[in-house]
Amino acid sequence: MDFRFTTEEEKLRQEVCDFLKKEVTPELIAEVAEYCGGAGPVFGRQLLRKMGARGWLCPTWPKKYGGIESSEMVGFIIRDEMTYAGAPVSLVGATMAGPTILRFGSDELKIEYLPRLARGEIDMALGYTEPQAGSDLAALELRADDKLATTTMERGEVNAEENGDYFLLNGQKMFNTHAHFVEYHWLGARTDPSNPKRHRGISLMVVDLKSPGVTIRNMATIAGWKTNEVFYDNVKVPKKNLVGEKNRGFYYIMTALDFERMFPVGGFQRIFDELVKYVKKTKCDGKPLSDDPVIRQKLAETAIELEAARLLYYQLAYMLDKGEVPNYQSSMQKMFATETAHRLADVATQVMGPRGQLQRGSKWAPLNGEAELHYRWGFIETVYAGTSEIMRNIIALRGLGLPLPF
Ligand SMILES: Cc1cc2nc3c(=O)[nH]c(=O)nc-3n(C[C@H](O)[C@H](O)[C@H](O)COP(=O)(O)OP(=O)(O)OC[C@H]3O[C@@H](n4cnc5c(N)ncnc54)[C@H](O)[C@@H]3O)c2cc1C
User: Fold this and answer.
1) By the number of CB atoms within 10 A of the CB, which of 19, 53, 150, 367 ranks highest?
2) Is the dihedral of CA 304, 308, 309, 311 positive or negative?
3) Which residues have a Cβ under 8 Å from the Cβ of 64 and sit 6 or more positions away?
């Protein structure tokens, strides 16, 4: 097996890398941290629009939707370079919702959303989790009802807005990151509460977050950025915003989650490269840190883990390019990459001693506080997009074929 990029891929990688060196500023990096790894309203959006103009945001998509019809490998390379440079890591519309619309959405939905996503003009927030539905997503209760419209029709009081063209949404979502600054909600809602098979009563839809009746309330996270609770009070959502078939949403969400569980390793690699430089140039009690055998061992172990996480990442691109849909393989990569990142931040803060706990902005913070920030952020990465325990369950069930324990 050849583990190198082709000459064309390498050329593109270098081009993206050179572009990002010019475009990624300290202001953008600060905004990415403030806006939960996403493209914030000012510098992040500017960058995404520039990347969109080159076809680099959604490179695999058909040209008519703003792509350049590239291989998946090209898309993976671009995202890896973006994270290495400190650009936004979480591109919900471009990498999770968009590919799911491409697979299952109507032509109307594709035309309405894909070109704007590919140009970097809009983005979406993931609306899966609810207070009682996280790992057990099939327990979600937010209602999307079209019965009210039917009743109105039965009474003969049909008007232009309430003639069955809308779902009426009521309920609550929780931990919906990016919802306070993006345009749309990628939302799972219950459309058939009577179905005893819970996962068969869920639909997936795109909701305008500016709709009347939507209330967004911030929640603080350990990483310093905010996620959100989102409340729906009689919110009207056009039925044309349904993704695929009604009541099949759970299956589409599972596909979207597989796309989400593909974590570029570039951002972690950058911290590691900086850490190695730090160890080479820093002395403790008059001795170079690089002489310390424990530090050498820890760095060597981390280097191996990062290499393995990267290979798992590019394996996903390879599978997609062969027409296969990664499933438990995405869970393997997500779990291993995020746990590696967490261990890396742990190693970095240990190597740097007490100063490793200083935050960004302190002149005494090594690596400008990156390790400290990612020590806190790392906890979250092993939770969102599915916890490490759930990833292990998926690998055991779907990867190894172990039967369900109940
Ligand atoms: C900062 C942050 C941002 C987030 N952003 C988003 C977002 O943008 N959109 C969104 O929809 N969601 C988001 N989430 C939600 C996230 O996906 C859920 O928190 C996660 O899936 C776990 O669900 P839960 O919190 O309900 O925990 P629970 O499901 O209640 O789990 C609690 C614990 O039990 C374990 N557990 C549960 N079931 C099993 C099982 N069957 N086997 C073994 N262990 C199990 C879990 O691993 C966990 O350790 C975010 C969460 C956080 C913390």
Assistant:
1) 367
2) positive
3) 115
* DSSP 8-state code for residue 396: I
Residues 16, 48: Cα–Cα separation, whole Å: 13
- pLDDT value of position 153: 54
Give the bridge partners for 238, in sequence order.
Answer: 166
Both tokens of residue 155? 């009474």
For residue 203, the cross-strand partners are: 189
Tokens of 350: 């240990």
Residue 90 beta carbon below 6 angstroms from any ligand 1 atom: no
Closest by Cα among 100, 214, 236, 221 to 161? 236
Q: Check the CA dihedral 347-351-357-358 and report its sign.
A: negative
The DSSP H or E segment spanning 47 is: helix 43-53
Opening angle at CA 103, ends 264 and 120, nearest 5:
55
DSSP at 94: I
Residue 160 pLDDT: 44
Residue 2's pLDDT band (boundaries 50, 70, 90)?
A: confident
Q: What confidence score (pLDDT) does residue 3 get?
A: 86
Q: Give the chain's radius of gyration (CA, Å).
A: 22
Task: Give the Cα separation of 14 and 7 in Å (integer).
Answer: 11
Reported pTM: 0.94
What residue spans of 282-327 are helical by DSSP H? Answer: 293-321
pLDDT digits (tens, 9 = 90+) for 196-230: 999 999 999 999 999 999 999 999 999 999 999 99
* Tokens read off for 115: 């070109």
List CB contacts of 115: < 8 A, sequence separation 6 or more: 64, 65, 66
Ligand 1 close to Cβ of residue 317 (< 6 A): no
Contact 201, 189 (CB under 8 A): no
What CA–CA distance (Å, rounded) separates 100 from 204? Answer: 10
CA of 70 to the centre of ligand 1 (A): 34
Residue 158 has pLDDT above 70, yes or no: no
Say how many C-beta atoms besides its own lie within 10 A of residue 188's C-beta.
Answer: 28
- Helix runs in 90-136, H state only: 92, 98-104, 107-118
- Torsion from C-alpha of 179, 385, 25, 13, nearest 10 degrees: -130
Quick one: residue 197, left, alpha or beta (phi over 0 = left, psi -120 to 50 = alpha)? beta
State the distance from the centre of ligand 1 to the C-alpha of 136, rounded, in angstroms: 8
Task: Compute the distance from residue 27 Cα to the ligand 1 centre, in Å.
Answer: 31
